[in-house]
Amino acid sequence: MTTQIAAPSSFSNLPPSALTDKVVVIFGGTSGIGLSAAIQAKAAGANVIVIGNDRTRAQQAAEKYGFEWRTADVTQSEAVYDALKEIPKVDHLVLLAGTFVAAKVLDGDVTYMRRAFEERVWASVHAIRALNERLSKDGSITFISGVLADRPNAQGTAVLAAASAAMEAFARGLALELAPIRVNTLSPGHVETPLLHKVLGDARDSVLPAMAASTPLKRLGTPEEAGAATVFLMANGWMNGTTLHIDGGVSLI
């Protein structure tokens, strides 16, 4: 099953020039939430650069939607610096890249578990350092965490939950350290993305309905909904140092 992402018809809830001609760089912008955010930012007038770890997918997304594109393995600092080195200025930096790292602490491979932090915390550190003064002072940085930050489980996600919670704390600290650059975190719940389908594998047809039934709204979120929340964090100049939960109320139960 392939999730189809379409650009919304209007952005009447955004200030008319909030993203017009702004440079938006989205790590993880070639699929799922990142791709939807890229499409919507482009529709709102931004100049969008997507960065993914798969060259073919990045090029295809760019050609289809009119983005610029780069490739980088975010766990490799040199690749992050190389992907950003020729961009003169970035108004909004969005860091959504990351895989689903699941392993039990007592018997999981430590090198593998470290990836949860490498893909999130350290990739963000390297991206911010790479851009440095090229980050617009009236722009923003957006991280991603997830419902695990508030609601961990016993299914081998303790390290991933820790990394997710770390991103929220990191954003709050950076909102002060990098001021007046705004720094926020998007915390999505169960969103039906290609990554979720990949994680569930052959079990997805049975697991997805159960996941949907467990939410207050009795459905999963869409990439479009989470992408719109990402655009909101970029476009609203009064959002700073906060975590925006878009989980259909899952964090309440």
UniProtKB/TrEMBL annotation:
<dbReference type="InterPro" id="IPR036291">
    <property type="entry name" value="NAD(P)-bd_dom_sf"/>
</dbReference>
<dbReference type="Pfam" id="PF13561">
    <property type="entry name" value="adh_short_C2"/>
</dbReference>
<dbReference type="GO" id="GO:0016491">
    <property type="term" value="F:oxidoreductase activity"/>
</dbReference>
<dbReference type="InterPro" id="IPR002347">
    <property type="entry name" value="SDR_fam"/>
</dbReference>
<comment type="similarity">
    <text>Belongs to the short-chain dehydrogenases/reductases (SDR) family.</text>
</comment>
<protein>
    <submittedName>
        <fullName>SDR family oxidoreductase</fullName>
    </submittedName>
</protein>
<keyword id="KW-0560">Oxidoreductase</keyword>
<dbReference type="InterPro" id="IPR051122">
    <property type="entry name" value="SDR_DHRS6-like"/>
</dbReference>
